[in-house]
């Protein structure tokens, strides 16, 4: 990871707080100094939610979709509803301090300090990893067992499968397993054989003139980048939809991508060692769109 370059602590305002200016709830901090209490539940238990927002030359992309998903994740975790106006302003302040070029603004909302009365919240801005090579060359994926069936998200909401929680140890372990198996990334597959998403990205397929992505029915995160890509494709008169997809659907697709806020669109070039068709011109076009101010 690149070093953090800017961070601010946010004193979370009540969702109903009608203020228009939240500047006095933001405290910039020294990123080289300790900032969190040892009782902090985000560090003890990963008990909190977060967002990573792509920033290009100081412009934060799809801010509304990200703050809305932060609120959705908070609701799934029974955290106090975030004040969206305050979070939009926090994004603006952090983005204004982001380095030029591609950067990332992270938002973190934690349950707070053990036995404490309020959540802890902060935002950071840092340079993004350079993903230009992988955007050009794509990724080889392996399919990995997600350990539950397609209905688990709706049947067991306490598993928080549709929330972007800070508990990403499993997602990071999945990426390490993928690399051990000689691949660059992983595709999660349910016990009953359906593909879901990658550990940090959504899946989009192009097949038979239509673009499809797994339906976000509680078991996966609804990707902001997937939503953006769909808006773009629809504006070009192309057909998009949600479906229940199998590994066979991925293998036989005309092209397949993993899409996410910072890495953007990368082609899947192989699944479990079998090469996949790709569409380099459309991949480049999608990334030109995703790098433009949105
Ligand atoms: N799915 C998971 C599990 C993720 O962690 C992410 C983002 O990190 C995504 C999908 C893609 O979401 P977005 O496009 O909003 O970055």
From TrEMBL:
A Gene Ontology BP annotation from the UniProt entry: carboxylic acid biosynthetic process
InterPro entries: Aminotrans_IV, Aminotransferase-like, BCAT-like_C, BCAT-like_N, Class-IV_PLP-Dep_Aminotrnsfr
Keywords: Lyase
Gene Ontology molecular functions: 4-amino-4-deoxychorismate lyase activity
GO cellular component: cytosol
UniProt cross-references to Pfam families, sorted A to Z: Aminotran_4
EC numbers: 4.1.3.38
Family: Belongs to the class-IV pyridoxal-phosphate-dependent aminotransferase family.
Name of the protein described by the UniProt record: Aminodeoxychorismate lyase
Native species: Microbacterium esteraromaticum
